[in-house]
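Quick entry between incubations.
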Amino acid sequence: MALLEIENLRRSFGGLVAVDRVSFRVKEGQIKGLIGPNGAGKTTLFNLISGLLRPETGRVIFQGRSITGLKPYQIARAGVSRTFQNPSLFLRLNVIENVMVGRHSRSRYGFWGCGLRWPGQAREERQFREAALAQLEYVGLAEFAETPAGALGFGRRRMVELARALATEPAMLLLDEPASGLNTAEKEDLAALIRRIRDRGITVLLVEHDMGVVMSLSDEILVLHDGTPIAEGSPAEVQNDPKVIGVYLGGEFAGTAHRSAAQSREQG
Amino acid sequence: MRTRGVWPIAGLAAAMAATQGILRLTGTEYCLTQLTMALYYAAVVMGLCLLMGYAGQVSMGHGAFFAAGGYTSAVLTTHNFSAWQGTLVSSWLEKSRVLVARQDAYSNAMLTVSPWAAFGAAMVLTFLLAVLIGYPALRLRGHYLAMATLGFGLIISKLLLGSALTGAADGLNGVPEWQLLPGLAVTGKTAARVSNYYLACSFVLFLLVVLGNLIRSTVGRALQAIHDRETAANAMGIDTAACKLRVFVLSALIAAAAGVLCTHYTGGIGPSEASALKSVRYLALAAVGGMANLWGVTLGSVALNYASLRGWFGSYDNAVFGAILIAVISLAPDGPLKPIGAGLRRCTRRFRPVPEEREEHGPA
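Done. Structure below.
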């Protein structure tokens, strides 16, 4: 069963069409990889799914319900969480508080309840802290719980961001280049962690440039080029697809061929 | 959670009582008047601390919210509604004690709105004004709120100066006392000076507790997350627009409540309260306290407001606050307390007895 269905998504910025005619499905419980050369529209697609951008046409259907055009926080509450290409931790907060932010939408207390310490609010706060600590243990950073977020290195910030996304208890996780900037050992840890996340029943959609990581992790891969899918299938199928090889290796020729094909489609 | 607990609050309450004791013993109890006003002005800055220091939203119009509260109260409690007397609306309002008969300073009979009802009206009006400004401005990111509130402040200021209802340039006076509880009224009468000082102290302590709770809760984390990275906060499930609007409205209501209390205390209010200079002064006071430091902001603004009200800065009053703002922002953007605190810690570390090293260090 498809957890996420993308139907004919399109988004342009001025004259530049970043994402066009994108349709695909992500099955429940799988890790789906999203690859493509720089500028292929991967991050734009992520932003369209998570609500940071609105699509011009097309629909995003999650768990059978359209989430097209919803605000990011509504999409997060619906069960789609994400990380960012550059880890975007809240630097005023320490590590565990960052993860606790992921629990915010589950809180039963607003301004009144928190300001006046409504009965139960302190207990909820303790529960949030415990849940956040559990997520930090899960990614192996429990010892840094009280460290200011800004004091962590790049790799660890990535992991805290992942813990924060997990704290929202998502059904689906969008990871935007989680392996970039990590060293080899960290990449291996990350790959193992993403598999464990999938085994917990969380569906993963992953943008990744590191071919080693994405090929070994993904159950299925979608290849984007110039904003449009050119291939979809298992890692082995995609690796042997002549169009994909052309885009990645043939550079010039394959690119011009694709572009002229796209132009003739538009004219036709 | 690392709850600070009740001790700092109890300590501050004790210090407030000690201040009153010292002033009584030295025969300078008249200083309590300025101290009481300084506490009310500090409350405005405390709300601004939550809005600016924690949520990162700049308001240049908090003076106008203070004035909105104060003027609503002043107009309603000094305007004579006796022309309405006898109408159905009036008799119903009199029966429900919204309109009360009283005498002005010259023993003329008046029919005015009761201070409690006026307070309610001030809160409702401020709520509406804050939503009206905040709703459109806070849906956008950036300095739109600062611009919108600056414009709002200028409009309110001009309206107050131009309207006969608000006493134009003279402002309003003759605001009656506000009977909060039996035996406790907000009034500037000398006999009630001490009780009013403690009333203002209680107001500030209450805000310290409530805002402190808020800051150390999921709401406080959400506000700081918005300050740092609004997009990421939204993507983590925080309704950032609603959160920003709520904190803005809350801080406006605090400013207005302080305005109502201060107006009843001093018995009047003038248009300078709504001026842009006043709003900038509140910004400067928040900056002095370190923005995201509720205690620093509170104590700093009580001290500086007191100095200003006692006339220590003479005719350079506004210039002093402008200079403070420039100095803080250019020299210590996190507020002067952080570098001072770090310096003090370095000093105490130096003097802390470390047995083996004592001889090496010597008296520093």
